[in-house]
Amino acid sequence: MGPPPSVSSYHPNSVAPSTPFSTAATPFTPRPADVSHLQPSLQNIVSTVNLGCQLDLKRIALQARNAEYNPKRFAAVIMRIRNPRTTALIFGSGKMVCTGAKSEEDSLQAARRYARVIQKLGFPAKFRDFKIQNMVGSVDVKFPIRLEALVLKHYQFCSYEPELFPGLIYRMMQPKIVLLIFVSGKVVLTGAKVRREIHEAFERIYPILKVVRGRGASGGRGRGRGRGRGRPVARGGRHGSRRIGRQPRMDIDQQQASTTPITDLDINGDSKPFFVNANVTLDQHIQAQTTNLSRYLATLFSLDLNSVEIGQKAKACALAAAWCRHDHKLANNLLRHRRLFTLTEVLKAVTMLDAARQIRVYEKKLKRLELNKIKPKAIKLGKIKNNIDNLNKLKPSNGSASGAVARHIQRWTRTLTKQELEYFALHMPTEPWKKLADIVHFNPTKDFPSLPWFLPFCFGTSAPAETMVARCRDLTNENVNDLLKEFSIPYSHLKQFKEHLNETSKAKIAAKEDKLDTILWYYEDLQCSPVDDIISERLRDGEQITLPYGKLMERLLLCRMLREGESTTSTRYGRRGARNTTSNSSNQPAHPDKAKFYSDLLPVAQAQLEKIKLPLESPVAVIGDASGSMEVAIRTATILSSLLTAICSAKLNFFNDKVFEPAFVPKTLEDVLSLALITQADGSTANAAGLVPYYNAKEVIKTFVMVTDEEENANGTIADGSTTRFFELFMKYRAEIYPAKLVFISFLSHQHAQGQMYSQFVNANVPDVLQFKFNRERPDLTKIDNLIGLLSTGSSDSFDNSLDPLQVEFEQNGIESVITRLVEKQDENSMPMDVEMNKTTAAN
């Protein structure tokens, strides 16, 4: 078989013939210049051939010389020969790729030699369909090039990101060649099928490069520092140089400004920080998935199963990392877990991948403004630069919002149900969908088949008149009860009219709601005697409750307060009108007829309580803050202290300016609620007082739990009469008695506050100190699940006990199988969608 036409038509040292052009030149296809003194030289040729038979790669690797095969890394044999010096990739299907040849003849000769080696090993190899797929040439134009000026003049066909790659990528349309152009004057041409295309492309690009020629080595080298010609280009050149040189320093500054910079992450060691620390970058997530994907996924789902709150950024990074790695199968499986990966996470992930494109848009806009004869306002420039800086923080080192990513997101939206989209349309802002549509480019009909009018609705079109959304939008205070007689409308659509619902409507809602969870979640809105009867009946019929344990506790406290005549309006878990030692502290009479299902609900919560196991190292001591500054949060603090005491069989005391014992030691859920209603907050805050009894008695406690607002303002007095603060006394306890662990349950002013006491331990690098935060003004019992999850995973040993089996399951059964099981488990125990959405919104 002779050489193909593409090989025989050119001699290795031939020069492309000059070609007359009759068409008018454009900036992108200029008239070819005389470049006879400069000729591109071929550096690499990639060719393919079909050997026409199936191959045993292991046998080839064992019997052939200069062959290697590692199927875990690459599913082909890599074989090399010295003459001509080339490399071949040989696949089991019989296809072969030959690279490294410097001429067409060498590529053909090398391919024949590889085929002959395969034949000598006993395979019936043929030599079919030889074809040159790519030619790479290079040339030096002998002068520096101002790349920024080039990208300004030819921005439609240029891509230039010096932070990622020092060269400019120029995509020529005719011939279809990609050029890599460097500031030094070196040009690499790739993508040609025949040698003529390389020469033709260089003839076309050369006059363009002459226009953006730099002024010698000092002005043109150094990555675009040359001033070029004229005032406008000089300004652009200086700005480009500043931006290129400053970028690495900006990243360092960001890390220094971070509260807890993470530099020594190891997915094979402590893998929790990837999902609980907000300072982990997308590139670190990519590295973790590449290094040990099964452990990465096991950590994510173990934390979720233990009710540890996983950061929204961490979930978005997990999804974006899968897309960056082109692991679309993993991304699709993650998206099946609807509770963890919602629209918010999808939008954040896509925004990260789209950051590089947005940066280029802003940079082009910035350069056009700076080159404008009319000087732009500093505020306008500042906003653009600020946007660029913010996007740089999101941008991954590789990966983009490609068409493949967009298609996978489109497939995800096709799985959204009519109920979910209607809920989005009625209760959630449409702006996120508009932002996502701007990047992904949805088709309203194909990508939202369950609700084709949804996307137009997000952009301002009215919903069809016969739909649930249109009906609910027509609801008014006057017609809500009448419409409920005709239609079964989910309560999530009726919340805004709760003050106008009559008892008949409330009873219909309670009877028609699919899950009892929704009625309990909104019980204070629907409270009335008929609703109480319906809840009791559904509980006695054995209907399952899937509310988080923290929310269930909060519902029980609400019911107990209603029955005791406590006010639930001013502060649900906070200060009361009078400070008595009895549970019925207000002047209102008790109402045992209210929340009649309380006695039916209590065993459900008690059963859940008995299932909770915390691997805290025993013995455990819980110290509760009952000082005056805790007045708003005293009930929540008491419930937390009592719950931990009941779960861990811990010792319990309270303190203000001195330590005191609780009225009784809580052992059951009823005890926990009773103690919460009778414990009062008063006096100053002497946290050390709670530790004094254990220090004086030299009693070994292995884990201390401090429930406090950390506003320490008084000393504790130990047996020798000296006074001390908590930090000093705890360090003495660790040194003299036992190196105990410490858990702060801190009631702080906002979520980013650290707390003065916890900060002391952090600054002193004291080991085994954890912190969990509650809002001091609005303490939320629903976060109990997250607290229990944190305590369950706080010890590396206890966390590994739940992590290791799941990691083994991922390795043995595969990602899809395990995630399918987790999704099915989620569906079995899932809360109603409106409850889940409210829970997610509150968490965010």
UniProtKB/TrEMBL annotation:
InterPro entries: TBP (IPR000814), TBP_CS (IPR030491), TBP_dom_sf (IPR012295), TBP_eukaryotic (IPR033710), vWFA_dom_sf (IPR036465). Residues 1-28, 215-266, 568-592 are annotated as: Disordered. It comes from the Eukaryota. One of its GO terms (cellular component) is nucleus. Residues 253-262, 579-589 have a biased composition (Polar residues). PROSITE patterns: TFIID. GO terms for molecular function: DNA binding. Residues 222-246 have a biased composition (Basic residues). Pfam families: TBP (PF00352). Keywords: DNA-binding, Nucleus, Transcription. Residues 16-28 have a biased composition (Low complexity). It is found in: Nucleus. One of its GO terms (biological process) is DNA-templated transcription initiation. The keyword Transcription applies. Belongs to the TBP family. HAMAP family: TATA_bind_prot_arch. This is Uncharacterized protein. It comes from Rotaria sordida.
